[in-house]
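Hi V.,

You were right to ask for the full record rather than a summary. Here it is.
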Amino acid sequence: MRVCLLASGSRGNSTLIEVDGCRLLIDAGLSGVETARRLSTIGLTGDDLDAILVTHEHHDHVGGIGPLSRRHNLPVYIDQQTHTALPKLGKIADLQLFTAGDSFLLRNLEITSFSTTHDAVNPVGFTILSSEGKIGFATDLGFSTRLVASQLQKCRVLILEANHDEQMLQDGSYSWELKQRIRSRHGHLSNNESSLLLENICWPGLEALFLAHLSEENNCPDLAAETFRKTLTAGGHSAEIIIGHQNHASFCFESHPVMAC
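Predicted structure:
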């Protein structure tokens, strides 16, 4: 198993997940050239990928999907409403449409989509179940619903949003309207809100926690990591914390196979 945030932030998002011999990208918000460069830093090329999964239609998550799919003949798995909201996506030779809440098989993987709350037409998160364990992905959500918490139970690896520190956002230079959008139930999770979600789903089998979509202006990596470290410690857990960055790929979580629970 290998997981890496190739890019994470308001200027482009893409996550590599490699498990059971299958390599996926969740979102492709970088240009094709930059995606290739980031993949090369972890020893891969676009031809090594097997598919792209899409969470929602915002440009920082989909900007590179069309060129990447066409260049490397990659299937794209995308919610029907999200696809409709992308009229300029272009021709995708292998378009796999689903509805939020659907589960589907991709090679030996069972992938489940679930609804999230964000200012997009029908945003989703994903869980990926494999012989090596379960991976959960939930970013760009204004608040954590019971559905989100239920879906993210018993994950070996979690990718969670940690967008902002509430005080830094309040004191920062953003307009009042933008601050309200970020704080809203269709905006982004703060460090504290996301750590409360972690408190509800953390378990002894969690090995790695990726913190994603950190604001460059309203958060800082050390502050976010310390917030989540306190939550892990309070629950008696010791998962590795890995921070996503905008300008370079994160550290990779790599592990040998284990039996799925």
